[in-house]
Backbone:
């Protein structure tokens, strides 16, 4: 009797341990498949014209407006909602901490959900909070459109943000567009989003000769059309810089 009791105790312990090991194993395997949630993001570059995602975009009819708000409209919104422009880069360095602390400006995130910053040479990644909200909403609506088409989320590429009068002039040397009129970029209300390049999830820009997913501009342009009709923003499609220049309007 004693012996059989001991035996059943052994079996119980053995069974219990086996169960634990099995549970651990199942969880581990499951973790590999789902819990990991970080599938290997390997770069797949498609030759120009052979990208399946761009093909999906090209087969749909898009409702895109003119997107030609003139500079006066941008400036009107910028002066109403923006900061006092910085005369020099040095002045910006000095005043920036205070403006950030008081919530007058916000820094754009390095790893935002819907956009990435390009290499900003003549601008700094700061905007008034309303413009940050606008950028984020554009991104969310853009991603929703891609999702509706069954496409993965592509990052928008932000190519210019806050400039000072000094950096604006530096730009003027290379770019006649910038000097002709004052730019709304100096008010922290405007940003540029490239329409020539969108970044897939794996985060590496496509090399020359491969698809840079510029057809993603169609769903983006449709979002911008909707939002400018809603009065949220001013938009102009800039041909030279291959970007949408966008200013928050409310
Ligand atoms: Zn593509
Ligand atoms: Zn611009």
Residues:
């Amino acid at each position: 009797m004693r012996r059989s009791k001991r035996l059943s105790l052994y079996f119980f312990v053995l069974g219990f341990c086996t169960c634990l090991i099995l549970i651990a194993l199942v969880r581990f395997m499951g973790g590999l498949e789902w819990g990991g949630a970080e599938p290997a993001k390997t770069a797949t570059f498609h030759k120009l014209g052979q990208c399946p995602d761009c093909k999906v975009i090209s087969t749909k009819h898009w409702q895109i407006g003119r997107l030609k708000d003139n500079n006066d409209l941008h400036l009107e919104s910028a002066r109403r909602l923006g900061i006092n422009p910085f005369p020099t880069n040095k002045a910006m360095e000095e005043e920036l901490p205070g403006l950030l602390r008081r919530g007058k400006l916000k820094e754009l995130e390095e790893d935002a959900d819907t956009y990435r910053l390009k290499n900003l040479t003549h601008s700094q990644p700061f905007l008034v909070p309303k413009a940050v909200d606008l950028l984020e909403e554009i991104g969310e609506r853009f991603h929703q459109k891609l999702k509706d088409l069954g496409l993965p989320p592509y990052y928008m590429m932000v190519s210019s943000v806050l400039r000072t009068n000094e950096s604006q002039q530096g730009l003027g040397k290379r770019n006649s567009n910038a000097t002709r009129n004052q730019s709304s970029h100096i008010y922290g209300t405007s940003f540029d989003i490239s329409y020539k390049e969108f970044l897939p999830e794996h985060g590496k820009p496509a090399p020359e000769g491969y698809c840079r997913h510029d057809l993603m501009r169609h769903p983006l342009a449709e979002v911008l059309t909707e939002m400018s009709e809603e009065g949220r923003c001013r938009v102009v499609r800039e041909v030279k810089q291959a970007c949408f220049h966008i200013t928050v309007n409310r």
